[in-house]
Write a structure and sequence with these properties.
The chain is of the alpha/beta class. The chain is 38% helix and 18% strand. It is globular, with a radius of gyration of 16 Å. Bound molecules: S-adenosylmethionine.
């Protein structure tokens, strides 16, 4: 009986990790130095609501919350193992909330900051979502790949770091999402 339970757990863990890899990106946590630099670029203010789309074990969110005790950090994660790690960590934080589920189905209307470390193949779908939901001033920061055909408000290229690209919510409406 125990063997079947273990198989079932393994099936769920591997199955959801595989689904995440196909859906938007596999679980690859942002490195510590990159995390710190990214947080510096987020323009965080007291009460800001930060969303990490595909939050993994919450690396970025917990680091941002630690550095800024007056922000709220929200993560969405679909792969069960990192979700559970992040969820358990969030039980000890009054700032961080972790939700299970598909990032494409989550509401971003009250986001002040959105962080993205996902594969560029989903950018078109993501841009359409941003164009419908994001506030004009919401800051979006992407790791590694920019949105094609959309000029970032700011580009951060530094030695030993992955490039980062900053956008504002209004840009996704002005440009028209079908050009991305
Ligand atoms: C490259 S990792 C980034 C982790 C985290 N944001 C960080 O910076 O450390 C991408 C994460 O997105 C998750 N993911 C992939 N597709 C997803 C989806 N459709 N909904 C929610 N999470 C997803 C993966 O499981 C993985 O943990």
């Amino acid at each position: 009986m125990l063997v079947y339970i273990l198989y079932a757990i393994l099936f769920v863990v591997i199955g959801t990790a595989a689904y995440a890899g196909i859906s938007a990106a596999p679980w690859v946590p942002t490195k510590p130095k990159q995390t710190q630099r990214m947080i510096e670029c987020l323009d965080l203010f007291d009460g800001a609501k930060v969303y990490d789309l595909g939050c993994g074990s919450g690396t970025l969110l917990f680091a941002a919350a630690k550095k800024n005790p007056n922000i709220l950090a929200v993560g969405f994660e679909i792969s069960v193992l990192p979700f559970l790690v992040a969820k358990i960590r969030s039980l000890f934080s009054r700032q961080v909330t972790i939700h299970y589920g598909n990032l494409f189905k989550k509401d971003l209307r009250d986001a002040d900051v959105v962080t993205v470390f996902l594969m560029s193949k989903i950018y078109n779908k993501l841009a359409q979502k941003f164009s419908k939901e994001l506030k004009n001033d919401a800051l979006v920061i992407l790791e590694v790949w920019p949105f094609p055909n959309l000029e970032p408000e700011r580009t951060i290229r530094e030695e030993n770091l992955l490039p980062m690209f900053v956008y504002r919510g209004r840009q996704f409406r002005i440009s028209g999402t079908n050009t991305l």
